[in-house]
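Example record for the data management plan.
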Amino acid sequence: MRILAVSDKESQYLWDYYQPGRLDGVDLILSSGDLKAEYLSFLTTMANVPVLYVHGNHDGGYERRPPEGCECIEDRLVEVGGLRILGLGGCARYNNGPYQYTEAEMRKRIRRQRLRLRRAGGVDIVLTHAAPQGLGDDDDYAHRGFEAFIPLIDRERPSYLVHGHVHMNYGSDIPRVEKRGPTSIVNAYERYLLEI
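Corresponding structural encoding:
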């Protein structure tokens, strides 16, 4: 399965300069947040595949006008093409804006998923906006990762945790992919293609 992961910056290659066929072969699109609703609607129309998303901290406009033809998987475990995907959007609270959570709130969100995860036999992909703490996050207060994601990764051992929030242009030493055990932690900034 080919999965296009997107986050934080609309890709000019896929939107402004789109040409038919650029999304051929993509089976699923995952959005880690902070993208225009129109962009996600465009992607689902052009690719004609499911687009699943979680909220980023700048997605307050989705309340009034969500992306058409796309599915929000916040606090849900969904199955697509045999893959179990868990959605946990938002970032660490830094100014009381939308989709911001304390560590305690994120731990509670994760605890609520345990029974679903057990019944499903685990999870293959965790889709988040923020990174796990120390694995693709940044040093500044607004872009720190969630410590609560670490026990989730260690217990469930998903193949991937896909996140955004930390823009690749913040610095030259920002990794695109990191590993923790069998889990690849992928920064989906702009676009990244996964082959599963």
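Summary line stored alongside the record: The domain at 2-195 is CATH 3.60.21.10 (Purple Acid Phosphatase; chain A, domain 2).
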